[in-house]
Amino acid sequence: MVYVGTHHIARFHSGNAIAVFALLLAACCRSSFALNPSLDINQYAHTAWTIREGRLKGAVFSIAQTADGYLWLGTEFGVVRFDGVRFADWQPPKDQRLPSTFISKLLAARDGTVWIGTDNGLASWNNGNLTVHPEFAGFRIFNLREAPDGTLWVGADALPTARICGVRKGSSECYGQDGVFGSYVQSLYTRDGEVWALTQSGLWRLAAGALKRYPISGAGRDQALNETPDGRLIVVTAGGIKEVVGDNLQPYTIPGKRPDKPVNILRDRDGGLWIGTAASGLLHLHAGRTDRFARSDGLTGDYVLTFFEDREGNIWVGTTAGLDKFRDFVVTTVSSKQGLSGDYVWSVLASRDGNVWIGEQNALNLWRNGRITIFQKQAGLPDPAAQSILEGHDGRLWAFTSRGLVSFEHGKFTPVTGVAGGRVHAMAGDSAGNLWLSEDRGLLHLRDGRIVEDVPWSRLGAKRTSLTLLASPEPGGVWIGSSLDSGIIYFKDGEIRQSYQANGLAEGKVGSLSLDRDGALWAATAGGLSRIKNGHVATLNSRNGLPCDSVHWLMVDDDDSFWLYMPCGLVRIPRPELDAWTADPKRTVQTSVFDSADGVRLSAPQYSVYSPRVSKSPDGKIWFVSLEGVQVFDPAHLPLNNLRPPVHIESIIADDKSYAFKPGMRLPANVHTLRIEFTALSLVEPEKIHFRYKLDGQNKNWHEVINERQATYTNLGPRNYRFRVIACNNSGVWNETGDTLEFSIAPAWNQTTWFYASCVAAFLAMLWGLYRLRLYQIRREFNAQLDGRVDERLRVARELHDTMLQSFQAALIQMQAARNIFARRPEKTEESLDKAINTAAGAIAEGRSAIQDLRLHPAGGGDLAELITTAGQELARSEEAEGNPPAFGVTLEGARRDVAPLIQDEVYRIARELLRNAFRHAQAGRIEVEIRYDSRQFRLHVRDDGKGIDPEVLKAGGRAGHYGLPGMRERANRFGGKLDFWSEAGAGTEAVLTVPAAVAYGASNGGALSFLRRKLWIHER
Amino acid sequence: MNAETKTIRILAADDHALLRQGIASLVEIEPDMELVAQASTGREAIDQFRRHRPDITLMDLQMPDISGIEVIRHVRAKSPITPIIVMSGHNTPELNKAAQAAGANLSLLKPVSIAELRRVIGEALAR
Description:
The complex is a heterodimer of chains A (1021) and B (127).
Chain A: H1 19-28, E1 29-30, E2 45-50, E3 60-65, E4 71-75, E5 78-82, E6 87-90, E7 103-108, E8 114-118, E9 121-126, E10 129-133, E11 140-146, E12 152-157, E13 163-168, E14 171-175, E15 185-191, E16 194-199, E17 202-207, E18 210-214, E19 223-227, E20 233-237, E21 240-245, E22 248-251, E23 262-267, E24 273-277, E25 282-286, E26 289-293, E27 304-309, E28 315-319, E29 322-327, E30 332-334, E31 345-350, E32 356-360, E33 363-368, E34 371-375, E35 386-391, E36 397-401, E37 404-409, E38 412-415, E39 424-429, E40 434-439, E41 442-447, E42 450-456, E43 468-471, E44 477-481, E45 488-492, E46 495-500, E47 510-515, E48 521-525, E49 528-533, E50 536-540, E51 553-556, E52 562-566, E53 569-573, H2 575-583, E54 592-594, E55 614-616, E56 622-626, E57 629-633, E58 638-639, E59 647-654, E60 657-659, E61 665-667, E62 673-680, E63 690-696, E64 703-706, E65 710-714, E66 720-728, E67 734-745, H3 753-824, H4 826-855, H5 864-880, E68 887-893, H6 901-921, E69 926-933, E70 937-944, H7 951-956, H8 964-974, E71 978-984, E72 988-996, ...
Parallel strand pairs in A: 1-58, 61-67, 68-69
Antiparallel strand pairs in A: 2-29, 3-4, 4-5, 5-6, 7-8, 8-9, 9-10, 11-12, 12-13, 13-14, 15-16, 16-17, 17-18, 19-20, 20-21, 21-22, 23-24, 24-25, 25-26, 27-28, 28-29, 30-57, 31-32, 32-33, 33-34, 35-36, 36-37, 37-38, 39-40, 40-41, 41-42, 43-44, 44-45, 45-46, 47-48, 48-49, 49-50, 51-52, 52-53, 53-54, ...
Helix pairs in contact in A: 3-4, 5-6, 6-8
Chain B: E1 8-13, H1 17-28, E2 33-39, H2 42-52, E3 56-60, H3 68-78, E4 84-88, H4 93-102, E5 106-109, H5 114-126
Parallel strand pairs in B: 1-2, 1-3, 3-4, 4-5
Helix pairs in contact in B: 2-3
């Protein structure tokens, strides 16, 4: 296919640019896409959709095309709309119904109305409204015709009387109520203000309100009415073809066999006549010939029900078994169907006189003006299998067969003596009469009909015969291309004058050689296209723009563009591109590719081993050998489809539910999958349509696809969207306007502005709440610390009061007593004074302890074991003055862990007091402290082996007047700990402080809740 | 009070032993006073009062088991006229008021001197 346009479209290789090429192609191409009338039906591209395949449900009785480009098919199961790829049942709106689902005739009027004829009446569709015309109720409508003045002529069949009615501006005027037409109207035709009708009773003409009948033999259902290209009205019946001349019917002769059971006729825009039959497919009358195409040729069915020519020139045929489409190929095939001796063609030569010689394994064929003459033995050929062919400079034709060389001149084949038979793969000749033949054995050089040289290939450094020879413009020299590996030599006067092996030459066998006007030699090889000039070699391949690598042959057209036949298709390189590449071999060339869709018979290797395999005729057409005969194309008249394809967005489906189009369309929230279906109406090659689409609001760039007619999006957010789609046809002509769909997606409750605002508000509220909570925590912590300090002060005050103050009061009383006693009982005075001194000393010690406690730095930061060890050692030293202090030690159990600083401080103070009590009152020989770091709790043991505590005192919670034990318990409880005592008289005492891990170790243990608890001083028991 | 020798019989209730010893030392050299009982707890004070029926009860308000106020009420309930003198380490109006309401007659601020003790006892007995 050919891309034309101003947009770059990626093809299957890089390097295709459109802009320059578009202009060039537009200049050289036919301005419309229609069927070439000189071709047979079997030379057109044919596409078939059979009912059996399942895509089409029923027989197609009628075809129409609306202005939006859709094809409307009237079938036995209703109306079907076709965009070239998809068949879609068409239904009127819910509250409207067609008179019947059997659609017998469709017509798209110029005002946009679609007239729908059924087997039970007539309806019309316009602007979304269906109108059923009651005057035709019960009639079978098989004929509709729009006259130039806009009148719709309806052929309405009914028993016993058929009618012909003209419908105009809502009213109808009918003829035939008296039964003159019989029960059916077979065909209608309008021209020059007249209405012609083929009915059961004959041919009728209605003009100026008056009816005239033309008797016609063989009338029946097998008849059709139409106009020839030259304006003659013809009637095709089973009894023959007649033409209306004046008031008479005269025979009309067509070439070929008379059609069998003709039922309809189409005159195409190029003047071809198509006759559909009821039993043998269709006939195509063109260029003075008639050819057939039936089911055996690939037609869906032999009963042709209807014809239609669409706006792009495609011919549509509805049969009882399906739908067919015929369109032009870019490249035409001439085969045995056109009269060739066979399809296995070896060589083709277009001679200067306009003849095309085709060497085929059965004969030598001569094609001229569409006619083929076959030459075989009886024509003088020593062997019918014509291998290589050559036109000499003198115009003489040379042909080589397995039995030797012949020349053709003045209509006669003359064998050349002295040249043995065999195989000659290539021939070349120059202006001096030199003729070179590439045989299996070697190179044969003839001059004036005599062998001059017979050079074995080994002498030329070649292992095998050559498939390509090219005579040099300089007489006596010949270029020889290797058929095995890369290699080109120039041979002249018995010597190899130039040789190119590798050194930049593309690898692989040489398929053809061509001399450019600037003297450069071009070689088509299996590895690419090489250019040799002045000893320099440059090669073009897929790395610098070719769609693939292997080049079978190259040919320069009359426009100086290069055409390459490659496994991937026929490739055209405009001359400017080649010149630019020649100047800069690093540059990438821009090409266009024609493939099988364009009629090119792709071929991986070059099958023919004879030459020439390509030839250009004087009219500029290029002929080349293929596996299906000879193919030909006209570079100067390539078909161009310049009709911009209408683009339509067909549906929008959200989560498998389809939504009707309407302004301001709003889809529900939380759409998971959104699919937008669209199409473009170019029916020539719909599978080659390129689409570009973009969803504004979602896509940044246009997305391009080929033959994909839907776009799918997932999880679109709530907003307004605009979907745009454009398309180009098979010739690259873009419809830049395309189609647009605007819609919006509603927000879900969690997507609304209110929700977002609420989230923001909630977040701010949460921040505010966290702030307030933190303030509360800080305040509580502060208060707790304050309470702690207050408690501590109260405790100290209480301790001072209960201990030191009491002691001083007692000391004072003792001294007063000593004073009072002194005068009367002096012996008692010393005792009282001793008591007072001791009491005062004790008070000082207690005061010092209290002061020390007040001065104590919080023990939260240091190592607890070290702190307790230091405290014990101090107490031990203070007891040394009283005698033997007890032994003291601290042990650790479990892996050391960090205790929360505040907790550690409390634990230390309790431990210190316990130690103080033990050192002072236990009279112990050993005092031990054990610190246990368990995973579930922290424990502190203080043991001594002293005298023990009176059980009654323990039970009471402490000695009267002493608040140490209760005070410690209370202290422990305050932070969530527990202090227990065990003691037995004479067996020592053990105090155990237990703190839960969540409290002792802080946030690292117990999680956030415990952390919070601890932070908020929530007590745990 | 012993009618023949006219000695004032005193009960000292204080949880601090040294204070009781101090009082005992003070009273011991006074010919007209006798420390007939000591108590270190409130219950002991009630028990000693019941047993010895002293002429004067010296009562510390801060006792380990039941408060001195409760002891005063109990004693007053048993003996409406026996003088009760409160010994307190703090001269707080609230405590004084509570003690008076419970039935205490007078109060002394610790530490007590013999002169002060004698004065208050005399005043209590005179009432």
